[in-house]
């Protein structure tokens, strides 16, 4: 059994068309992994940036996993949502990143995409917001059925993660 | 005005900061032994401190003649020394307090009355034991005043800052007055109308501390009980987390502290502080350790029950390469709506599990402009797992590393495909995070017809075999020529790869990790050595066919030395020849060239 600690934060997001964003996040692992402590998913507050377009959440991530194998290394998936002045929420981007497998401090950028609708949908999206969303959110962190999707590039989510590994060297794993 | 100053011995400057100790044990067990001693009149020892210098007294002459201090002037043997063992928050009354609280009329607070009772009791039981050493506990007025009026600079006009006042108002020593607003219910994350108390508690640091002062009454003999002669010998602070701050620190090997009293007599005092707490009995300590060990082992068992203690391992001699990859983005392409098609090529000696998918297609992503480029964000995950098994150990060639070939295509509104670029990346040979940006090119034909076709109806020259991006798989010759093949530079694709390597060989070689640089060294170090042994084995079989070199070189030599060969035996020459080599070569880095030279020498000898 080897253990992985991930301690860090979702710093914020940039490059989205409007600000006042929030983010739902989750960590997906394979079957050999067990969450020992910490929260596997969460949601940040809505941040209204004052000056530039970077929304800062500084949302903490602190999880501790134990594993029997390398397969199914944890993946962090994020959904960036926009909350407008009427309180409506609309999806702005899906993204994912592998949690780093080497110990140390990592600053990661996680690029996101948004499903692309037909031109009528895009027109209505321009005026009243909204837009298509994924039916199953597992498409965010799996690649198998991606070819069915039509997407458009969205913004980036910034992460700072510190990784601590334990007992991997005991099993001959170089990280 | 009387001023005092704690002075340290020469070469010791830590006295100002105090020391911080941590203890899990209850603080009521803390005992401090204080020993105070008058050295002599300070003016005898330190005449240079006597200001102004224009008044040479009789003491100065005394110093000049190195006369011992006069025993007559105020010398009292019983007054010279005092020792006390003080417990945590144990009250020792000073002469001043005894005088004050003796009379019931001076008592105002319940604490005063309690002191009054205690002093009366003390008087009945035969007077107090301490004379010069006394304490101020957390409840005493002094502790309040000291914290509030403590000066930090020499400025005469220093007034406590706003923050200091707030901190003092907070009365942060009281442990029982912790703010209850700390654990707010989850439904109310924000207090829209914070109360005055809430602001006080949350705007300044709020670690509750209990304080205790060990004081010394350093007045001249017979003049005890004057507040201006009181000096702080030691300040002890304890917070609720078991952090004990002692300022100044216990005097261990560092020697005693000195206080010089700037009174009319300028007396010098020396005092020591010792930690006199009762030590834990060895059996108790052992029991505690056993308990902790038991706790930890139970926690470990619990974890093992949750997850299991095993871990999937590789076969001996195999390297497992595990890649958590991501196609991050593609940038700088001509058309919109891009997608990436990629596959992994495994060279010889590499294999992958049957379920492993070795190719993938991303979604179609419309680009957005970022800086000068149009970027498409894929955020496409893939996981690759493969095994490297070196079958033929004697083969000295470098193993090839797996390669990802990819092509970028665009798909427009009319469902027309266009090839946007070809590229490849070699998987990194070192573990860790790697962000690789691979530039791409696409084949073009001479003339405008092909470009017109590409623009209007889509389609353009494509590679029949994508491995042509590197050395094609079907290529057999000596030189690869691409003369006549025209390409155009297009954009680039960014990959992020988290690589992990696993092998049983890493377990053995972890000690020599520093010397070995690359994974190849570590994997094939033993195989090269074995190839050298093969060579040597052949060589020795030439000389004495009965003996096979099937063990390491040095043990072979030992064996030969034991058999005491005659000088005529050529193996003895060999022995002499090899010994220095074996000594100088690091056993795991015997290279092939060295083996070749050895073989050359052997041939020379046997020839």
Overview of the molecule:
- The complex is a heterodimer of chains A (175) and B (607).
- Chain A has 175 residues and is mostly beta strands.
- Chain A has a single domain, classed as C2 domain (Immunoglobulin-like, Sandwich).
- Helix content of chain A is 6%, strand content 53%.
- Chain A has one helix at residues 119-128; strands at 2-14, 21-28, 33-38, 41-43, 55-67, 75-83, 89-98, 104-115, 150-166, 173-174.
- Chain A has a nine-stranded antiparallel β-sheet with strand order 3-5-1-9-8-7-6-2-4, with no helix packed on it.
- In chain A, β6 and β7 form a beta hairpin.
- The radius of gyration of chain A is 17 Å and the shape is globular.
- The mean pLDDT of chain A is 92.
- Chain B has 607 residues and is an alpha+beta fold.
- Chain B has five domains: 4-69 and 78-89 and 131-151 and 207-275, no CATH class; 93-129, no CATH class; 280-310; 318-504, C2 domain (Immunoglobulin-like, Sandwich), CATH 2.60.40; 513-606, no CATH class.
- Chain B has helices spanning 42-45, 58-64, 95-101, 110-124, 141-149, 162-170, 196-203, 282-307, 448-457, 504-508, 519-543, 553-562, 570-584, 592-606; strands at 4-7, 19-22, 31-41, 81-87, 133-136, 209-217, 230-239, 243-247, 257-261, 267-275, 318-331, 338-345, 350-351, 359-361, 364-366, 368-370, 373-389, 403-411, 417-426, 432-443, 487-503.
- In chain B, strands 11, 13, 16, 17, 20 and 21 form a six-stranded antiparallel β-sheet that branches. Chain B has a five-stranded antiparallel β-sheet with strand order 1-9-10-3-4. Chain B has a five-stranded antiparallel β-sheet with strand order 2-8-7-6-5.
- In chain B, a hairpin with a 5-residue loop joins β9 and β10.
- In chain B, α11 packs parallel to α14 (592-606) and α12 packs antiparallel against α13.
- The longest helix of chain B is centred in the middle third of the chain and has 26 residues, at 282-307.
- The radius of gyration of chain B is 43 Å and the shape is elongated.
- The model of chain B is unreliable at 1-14, 45-75, 173-182 and 525-591 (pLDDT under 50).
- Chains A and B meet through β7, β8, β9 and β10 of A and α8, β11, β15, β17 and β21 of B.
- Chain A: It is found in: Cytoplasm, Cytoskeleton, Cilium basal body.
- Chain A: Keywords: Cell projection, Cilium biogenesis/degradation, Cytoplasm, Cytoskeleton.
């Amino acid at each position: 059994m080897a253990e992985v600690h991930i301690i860090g934060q979702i710093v914020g997001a940039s490059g989205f068309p409007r600000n006042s964003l929030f983010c739902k996040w989750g960590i997906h692992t394979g079957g050999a992994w067990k969450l020992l402590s910490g929260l596997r998913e969460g949601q940040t507050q809505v941040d209204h940036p004052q000056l530039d377009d970077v929304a800062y959440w500084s949302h903490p991530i602190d999880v501790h996993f134990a594993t029997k194998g390398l397969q199914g290394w944890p993946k962090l998936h994020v959904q960036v949502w926009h909350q407008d002045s009427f309180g409506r929420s609309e999806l702005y981007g899906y993204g994912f990143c592998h949690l780093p497998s080497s110990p140390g401090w990592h600053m990661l950028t996680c690029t996101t995409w948004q499903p692309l609708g037909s031109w009528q949908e895009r027109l209505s999206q321009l005026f009243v917001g909204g837009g298509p969303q994924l039916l199953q959110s597992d498409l965010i962190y799996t690649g198998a059925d991606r070819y069915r999707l039509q997407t458009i590039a969205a913004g980036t989510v910034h992460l700072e993660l510190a990784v601590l590994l334990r007992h991997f060297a005991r099993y001959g794993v170089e990280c | 005005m009387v001023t005092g100053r704690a002075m340290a011995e020469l070469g010791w400057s830590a006295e100002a900061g105090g020391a911080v100790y941590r203890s899990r044990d209850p603080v009521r067990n803390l005992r401090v032994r204080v020993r105070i001693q008058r050295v002599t009149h300070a003016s005898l020892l330190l005449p240079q401190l006597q200001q102004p210098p224009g008044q040479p007294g009789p003491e100065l002459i005394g110093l000049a003649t190195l006369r011992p201090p006069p025993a007559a002037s105020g010398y009292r043997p019983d007054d010279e020394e005092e020792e006390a063992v003080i417990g945590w928050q144990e009250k020792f009354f000073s002469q001043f307090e005894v005088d004050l609280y003796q009379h019931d009329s001076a008592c105002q607070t319940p604490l005063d009355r309690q002191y009054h009772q205690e002093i009366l009791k003390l008087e009945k039981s035969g007077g107090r034991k301490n004379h010069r050493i006394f304490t101020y506990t957390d409840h005493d007025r002094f502790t309040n005043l000291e914290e509030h009026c403590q000066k930090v600079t020499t400025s005469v006009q220093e007034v406590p800052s706003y923050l200091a006042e707030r901190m003092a108002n907070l009365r942060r020593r009281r442990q029982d007055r912790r703010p209850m607003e700390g654990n707010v219910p989850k439904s109310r994350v924000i207090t829209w109308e914070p109360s005055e108390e809430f602001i006080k508690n949350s705007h300044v640091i709020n670690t509750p501390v209990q304080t205790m002062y060990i004081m010394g009454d350093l007045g001249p003999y017979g003049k005890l009980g004057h507040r201006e002669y009181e000096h702080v010998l030691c300040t002890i602070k304890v917070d609720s987390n078991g952090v004990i701050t002692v300022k100044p620190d216990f005097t261990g090997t560092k020697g005693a502290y000195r206080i010089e009293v700037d009174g009319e007599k300028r007396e010098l005092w020396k005092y020591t502080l010792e930690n006199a707490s009762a030590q834990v009995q060895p059996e108790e300590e052992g029991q505690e350790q056993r308990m902790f060990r038991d706790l930890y082992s139970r926690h470990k068992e619990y974890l093992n029950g949750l997850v299991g203690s095993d871990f999937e391992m590789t076969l001996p001699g195999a390297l497992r390469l595990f890649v958590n990859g991501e196609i991050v983005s593609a940038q700088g392409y001509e058309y919109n709506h891009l997608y990436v098609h990629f596959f992994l090529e495994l060279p010889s000696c590499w294999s992958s599990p049957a379920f492993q998918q070795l190719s993938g297609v991303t979604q179609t992503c419309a680009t957005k402009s970022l800086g000068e480029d149009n970027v498409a964000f894929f955020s496409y995950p893939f996981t690759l797992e493969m095994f490297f098994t070196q079958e033929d150990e004697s083969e000295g060639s470098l193993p090839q590393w797996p390669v990802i070939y990819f092509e970028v295509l665009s798909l427009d509104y009319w469902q027309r495909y266009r090839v946007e670029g070809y590229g490849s990346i070699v998987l990194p040979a070192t573990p860790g995070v790697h962000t690789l940006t691979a530039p791409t090119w696409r084949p073009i034909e001479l003339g405008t017809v092909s470009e017109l076709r590409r623009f209007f109806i889509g389609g353009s020259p494509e590679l029949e075999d994508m491995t042509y991006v590197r050395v094609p798989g079907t290529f057999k010759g000596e030189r690869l020529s691409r003369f006549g093949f025209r390409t155009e530079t297009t954009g680039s694709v960014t990959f992020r790869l988290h690589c992990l390597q696993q092998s049983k060989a890493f377990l053995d070689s972890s000690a020599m990790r520093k010397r070995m640089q690359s994974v190849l060294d570590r994997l094939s170090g033993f195989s090269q050595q074995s190839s050298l042994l093969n060579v040597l084995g052949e060589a020795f079989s030439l000389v004495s066919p009965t003996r096979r070199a099937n063990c390491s070189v040095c043990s072979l030599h030992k064996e030969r030395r034991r058999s005491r060969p005659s000088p005529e035996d050529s193996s003895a020459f060999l022995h002499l020849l090899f010994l220095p080599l074996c000594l100088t070569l690091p056993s795991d880095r015997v290279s092939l060239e060295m083996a070749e030279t050895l073989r050359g020498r052997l041939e020379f000898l046997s020839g």
